[in-house]
Amino acid sequence: MSSDTRILGIEGTAWAASAAVYDCATDDVVIESDAYEPESGGIHPREAAEHMHEAIPRVVETALEHARQTHDGPETEPPVDAVAFSQGPGLGPCLRIVGTAARALSQALEVPLVGVNHMVAHLEIGRHTADFDSPVCLNASGANAHLLAYRNGRYRVLGETMDTGVGNAIDKFTRHVGWSHPGGPKVEAAAKDGAYVDLPYVVKGMDFSFSGIMSAAKQAHDDGVPIEDICFSLQENIFGMLTEVAERALSLTGSDELVLGGGVGQNARLREMLETMCDQRGADFHAPEPRFLGDNAGMIAVLGAKMYDAGDTIALPESRVNPNYRPDQVAVTWRGESKRSEDLEPDAGRETGTEQGAEALVDLEPDAGRVRKRRESKGYRHPDLDDRLRRERTTLEARLTSLARREGVPTPVLSDVDPLEATLELEYVGATDLREGLSVERVRDVGRHLARLHEAGFVHGDPTTRNVRVGRRASDGSSGDAPRARTYLIDFGLGYHTDHVEDYAMDLHVFDQSLVGTAPNPDPLRAAVRDGYREVGDERVLERLADVEGRGRYVTA
Ligand SMILES: C[C@@H](O)[C@H](NC(=O)OP(=O)(O)OC[C@H]1O[C@@H](n2cnc3c(N)ncnc32)[C@H](O)[C@@H]1O)C(=O)O
Ligand SMILES: Nc1ncnc2c1ncn2[C@@H]1O[C@H](COP(=O)(O)OP(=O)(O)OP(=O)(O)O)[C@@H](O)[C@H]1O
Ligand SMILES: [Fe+2]
C-alpha cells in the first residue's frame, strides 16, 4: 500500500487480547498480545471475557504508546488515523468488550472506527504478505475451517467444515486424553514419533467433516493404541483432507495461488503438505509468518488500513459486534481492479490432450470417443492413505458411474477399470464442462439427475460444475431444432450408498456452492436446480438443504 495511513487494530474474539499498530508507509506491524490460557478444559467464554476486560486496556496502551513515539506529526494530531477492531465472529462476551474499547478509543482520539471481519482478516494478511493477486484461501483456525475465493465483490465460501473448526476438533481430542489447552502444538510434537494407523477420512466436494475421525481417535486411545500413532495419523488425515479440498478449489477456480491463514496454520506438517501439493500442480503457496497466523491484532490493523483507505469506516450505531459474522457477508470495498482480472477465471477447457483435474490426469481422445483417467499418487499424502483412497475411489467411480446410468442418468460408458493402477477407461461425453456452458435448463437437468441418484440410494459426492459435461460433440452435427443436448454426470469417485436425507442435502449443497463460487449470476441457477430436484426427488431433501445452509457454523465451541 502506498498511503501513509496508520491504524490501531484491536483483536479479542476468543483467547488473544491483542493490539497492533500498522504503518502503511513502512509496512511495519507492531503487535502486543496477551493470551488467555484456561486452567483446565477448553476456552470458558466467561473467563475469556474476564481476561479481555483486564488485558485489552493494557495491550492497547502499549500499542498506543508505540504509535505516539513513532508519530512525526504535530502533537495535537492523533497518533493513528483510525481504530479497527474485530467485529466478529467470535465469543459474544469477548467481542462486546473489544467493541466497547474500540468505540471509546475512537471517540477519545477523534478518529473513525473500522469494523473488521476476523475471518477475512485471517486471509487478507496472507494476500498482503504474499502480494498475491487472487488466491484461494485456506483458513485453518480454531473455531473454523474453510476455503474462500474472491468473486464479484465478496469472498465466497467454496467449502467448509460441516461440524467443528479444525483446531477445536484437535483440542477436543487432547482434552479427552488429558492434555491442556491448546492441544494443536502437543499433537504436532507427539506426531513426530508416530506410525500410521487407519482413521476415517471424510470430504464431500470441498466440504469436510471431523466428527467421525475425532470419535475414532478417542476410541483408539481408549483401546490402547499408542498416542503418538494417533497424533501422527490425525495429522495425516485431517491435513490431508484440508490439502485435498484446497487442491480441488484451485482446480475449480483456475487459480494458481494459495494462501494459508489461522492458528492451525502454524503446524509444519500442514504447511508442508500444502507446499507439496502446490509444487506438484505448479501453483504458488504462501503462509504468513507465525505471528500473523494465530489470532493477532496485526491482521486486524492491516485489513483495517485497506478498509480505511477505501472509505470503509462505520458510524457508532453500525458498530455492534456480531458473533456469527460470516466472511461472505462482508462487502469487499478495498480490492481494486486486480492485475489479471476482476474475477477468477477457470482454465479454458481443452478438448484434446491431457486434462489435470484435482485428483486425476485425464487423457482426452475425443476422436476415438474415449478418455483414460488415472488417479495420480499425491506426494503430500501418506502412502498408505494414498493407496487406499486411489483404489477405493477408482472402484467406486466404476461402480456408481454404471449404476447411475441404469437409473436413467446420462454418464459415460465404462470400458475398462484397474483398481490397482487406479485407472479407468470411459466414453468421451459432452462438448464442454458445465462451468463453460451454464444455463438454467442444464442446471435443472442436474437437479433431476441428483434426485434420481438419491431416489436410488446413493450420492454423487462431488457434483460441481466441472463434473458435469454438457452439449453434443461437434461431430454429432446437431443444430437448432434437434433434441436438447444431454447433461452428463462424471467423476463419481466420492460417491457412496446412503439413505440419509442429510447426505442427499449435502450433495445438493456441494453443487450449490460450486454455482455460487463460479457463476456470475448464480441465483436463477440455484432456483433451477431446486426446481429440477423437486420434479423427481423428495421435498424433505430440499427442506434439509435450507437447514444445512442456515446452520451457523461460526460459533466457538
Ligand atoms: C473466531 C476466532 O476467535 C477463532 N480463533 C481461533 O480459533 O484462534 P486461532 O489462533 O486462529 O487458532 C487456535 C487454534 O490453533 C491450534 N494450533 C496452534 N498451534 C498449532 C499447531 N502447531 N498445530 C496444530 N494446531 C495448532 C490450537 O490448538 C487452537 O485450536 C477463529 O479464527 O476461528
Ligand atoms: N468421460 C469424459 N468425457 C469428456 N471429458 C471428460 C470425461 N471425463 C473427464 N473429462 C474431462 O476431464 C476433466 C477432469 O476429469 P475428472 O473430473 O473425472 O477428474 P478429477 O481429477 O477427478 O477432477 P476433479 O476432482 O477436479 O473434479 C473433466 O472436468 C472433463 O473436462
Ligand atoms: Fe482466529
Automatic annotation (TrEMBL):
Location of this chain's protein in the cell: Cytoplasm
Chain sites annotated for binding ATP: T354, E355, Q356, G357, A358, E359, A360, L361, V362, K373
Residue numbers annotated as active site: D462
Keywords: Acyltransferase, ATP-binding, Cytoplasm, Iron, Kinase, Metal-binding, Multifunctional enzyme, Nucleotide-binding, Serine/threonine-protein kinase, Transferase, tRNA processing
One term under GO cellular component: cytoplasm
EC number(s) on file: 2.3.1.234, 2.7.11.1
A UniProt-annotated Pfam family: TsaD
Positions of region (Disordered): 334-357
Reactions mediated catalytically: L-seryl-[protein] + ATP = O-phospho-L-seryl-[protein] + ADP + H(+); L-threonyl-[protein] + ATP = O-phospho-L-threonyl-[protein] + ADP + H(+); L-threonylcarbamoyladenylate + adenosine(37) in tRNA = N(6)-L-threonylcarbamoyladenosine(37) in tRNA + AMP + H(+)
Catalytic EC class: transferase
Co-factor binding comment: Binds 1 Fe(2+) ion per subunit.
Subunit note: Component of the KEOPS complex that consists of Kae1, Bud32, Cgi121 and Pcc1; the whole complex dimerizes.
Alphabetized HAMAP family for the sequence: Kae1, Kae1_Bud32_arch
Designated name of the protein: Probable bifunctional tRNA threonylcarbamoyladenosine biosynthesis protein
Organism: Natronorubrum sulfidifaciens JCM 14089
